[in-house]
Amino acid sequence: MMTLPLAQWLSAQRPDDAPVAWLGDHTWTVGQMRHDVAQLTRQLQAHPGERWALCFEDSYLFIVALLGTLHAGKTPVIPGHSRLSLLDEQRALFHGVLSDRTLGWHGPLFVVASAKRDGGEVTLLPALAPDSVVEIFTSGSTGTPRRVIKPVASLDNEAALLAERFAERLTGCRVVASVVPQHLYGLTFRIFLPMSLGLPLHAAMTWYAEQLVALPHTHRYAFISSPAFLKRLDHDLTPPPIALIMSAGGMLPWRDVEQARAWAGVTPDEIYGSTETGILGWRYRAEDDTPWQPFAGVRFAQEHDAWRVFSPLIPEPAGLVLDDNLAFDASGLFRLQGRRGRVVKIEEKRISLYDVEQRLLALDGIVEAAALPVTRNGRQGIGVLVVVDDATRARMTGVTGKQQELAWRKALIPWLEPVAIPRYWRVIEAIPVNTMNKRVYAQLQEFFHDPA
Fold first, then answer.
1. pLDDT tens by residue, 93-112
2. How do the domains of the chain map onto residue ranges?
3. Where are the beta strands (DSSP E) in 365-434?
């Protein structure tokens, strides 16, 4: 099936009454989207700001903002979150904000809404620049926000690569998602893939299984999910007709694969990749230890203790070095062997332990900090060892110590993703080091071996 590139999403190749997205009883059409995009394009053309942060929960309005920004000759910036405190901290990254709500933002802001009507005659939009890009910034909770420049052409190619493998199974489906378009997985699978194939998409986020099962059973659905959502499925509920489940962003435990298959009657298709690289591999597990298959044109080369990847989706000729360790078999399929460095994934969020430590050191009373992943009862969270000043140590006795921990957790909420906020705390005299003055991971883990 041929995919339509972003520059042609609103072209005359699609009739005015073709459905684009729906929410409740309302269905937006290509004609309505043309009208909404043209309105926003004119607003942005009249504003001097060149770079606009897109902060949306509503997928339809996100698409309007994305298209309006690009057709106005501006640069859409996707900050990876919509938290006001981090937007304030990162305001140098953009000149203004586009959102479906006010956010309390003090600066240039356009609240994007839909007129829910056609423009009458076809609105001619300015052509997209051939070198148009989307800038994606990794979340502030994963270290200093990393700027990743994605040419629109690369995002179009990614949708085409996915269509090669999945278009036949997607035919006739509506697309629903439990992942936001603020990250590349959501942007690619929830926005670019359905728009390129002309599939109606659900404008709302699916936060709970109850929302998924409440969808009209008169349609077939492709569900763009995360492992965390599939883990929380309520198997007593009756699923809607689901033709395809996609999972990406983190490891999907085998028991959750089996339970999703028993519940929905379909085995999840798993996607491996990253913000920097785009999609790299795919697997459909009939058994637990099924290896990953690279997508067409993806090539891996070992480089010392790391792997460098080359792909038609990576514009850099030198490719990119992966954070993951890989093991290949003779047929070219691969298995993941854990992550390199101090970046960990917890519930599909990439968390920089370094950044957690820096946020801790900014809190009153903490003079030294070490963060590490801790697993309890099959669930992973962040554990921290902190050294405090004398005044704080004097206060932290009995109940007061617990109150101090809660105060620190509260102070971290504006800065970190919920899963990055430390779950396990230990206040110690000094953080142990070896003879080379380096922290030893196994030694730090010992502080969390007791059941407290």
1. 899 999 999 888 889 999 99
2. 1-150, 206-340, 344-448
3. 366-376, 379-388, 424-427
Where helices occur in 248-398 by DSSP H, the ranges are 254-264, 353-361, 390-395
Q: If you average pLDDT over residues 14-31, what whole number do you get?
A: 95
What tokens were used for 57? 């929960």
Pick the CATH number of 1-150 from 3.40.50.12780, 3.90.550.10, 3.10.129.10, 3.40.50.2300: 3.40.50.12780
- Residue 236 DSSP code: T
Q: Which CATH superfamily is domain 206-340 in?
A: ANL, N-terminal domain (3.40.50.12780)
For the stretch 252-275, pLDDT in tens is: 889 899 999 999 999 999 999 998
Q: What's the burial of 124, exposed, middle or buried (CB within 10 Å: 0-12/13-18/19+)?
A: exposed
Kind of pairing between the strands at 201-202 and 220-225? unpaired
Write the DSSP string, 12-77: TTS-TT-EEEEETTEEEEHHHHHHHHHHHHHHHHTS---EEEEE-S-HHHHHHHHHHHHHTT-EEE
**Opening angle at CA 157, ends 152 and 158, nearest 5:** 95
Domains 1-150 and 206-340 share a fold: yes
Determine how many CB atoms are found less than 10 A away from the CB of residue 406: 11
Q: Alpha-carbon distance 185 to 274, whole Å?
A: 8
Kindly state the tokens that stand for 118: 């056609």
**Which of the 8 DSSP states describes residue 177?**
E
Handedness of CA 77, 80, 85, 89 (dihedral sign): negative
